What does this fold into?
Amino acid sequence: MYINFWYPVALSKDVTNEKPVQAEIMGLNFVAFRDTEGKAHVISNTCVHRGGALGRGKIKGDCVECPYHGWQFSGDGKCQVIPTNPLDVKPPARAKVDAYPAEERYGILFAFLGDLPAEERPPIYDIPEFGKENWRSNDIVVFEINGYYQRSIENGMDGAHNEFVHPLQGAPSIIENLRKHDIDVKDESEWGCGFMFAASGSTSEDTKVLGAGEGRTVAGSSIHGPNTLITRINFTEERGFAQYFFEAPVSDCKTRIFFVNMRSWMLDEEMDQRIIDINMRIAKEDIDIIEGLEPVRTPKSTAKEVLTKADAPIYRYRDFLKMWDDRGWRIDWKELQSQRGDVAFAIPCPARRTEKNWVLDPVPLVKSVDAKPKLKGVAS
Ligand code: FES
Ligand SMILES: [Fe+2]
It folds into this structure.
């Protein structure tokens, strides 16, 4: 799990000026709320007075009020009101919590959980089809799985499981093509990579039901950052799906996924539910696999797996993770767990780079670089 990326916190529609929303991401708690102007904020959930959970409190005007002694924190994380102080005494400078850059896109509130200045931050993945004519998205689906997010992302980058996990969707020629051709994984930006692959040969049951027609199906996946997965399925030039999975690791064995499905056909609103039903049936097939994987998290060494050339996209994803390890962005999960009963941690926010006087400890990060980055490509 990595600091310095954007994570989905809540659906925009659930973030109000009425009631705070608490969300656990990477083992830490955050609170989201809207101020009186409608702007959404995400701040650390732990009140620096004596540890109250702000997400269990109330919203008072532009602030969230701690349920314990009523201290009020505004969207910039600063305490504005300490009820027991004389009215003319300002709260001390230390009375502040981390406040994170927050942005709403696609109906999702994202928070940048890290301390990088704006110009160094990776972007939220830009969905090119969103809001475009001839494309439609159905309502965002949010679901949780009892699995590690990295396993989930790797599953999305894996073309070889299709026929086995999704028998109604799979076309036998995927395996045929994988046998004959290497997957060409290309870097798409500084923050990720992807591939497209021919899956022609037969029309799957799903596409028959939906009337996609015979065509040359091309499918592929990409990653952006550690926690965004994109899959594209083009049945024909005009008919396709583009699916976006914004994943929030809740812990090392639980993941919350915000799923945006775009389609360039069946644009009638009444098709939305049918598409959601089929997508969730397919997702359930994946979840059944992911929740059964051992170890729960990805093994530390590839000597504990037997990877083949069809696993090339997984290798490349891991190369990216390694790069972010080397920047010192990986959370030291074991250390966090061993101390958490005694220490309240926060992911450092950008203001920590310029201001002092922070009460909560910054989350422990893995500092060491243990090996040189792996080269592209794998043995067959
Ligand atoms: S613990 Fe939050 S006001 Fe006391
Ligand atoms: Fe799958």
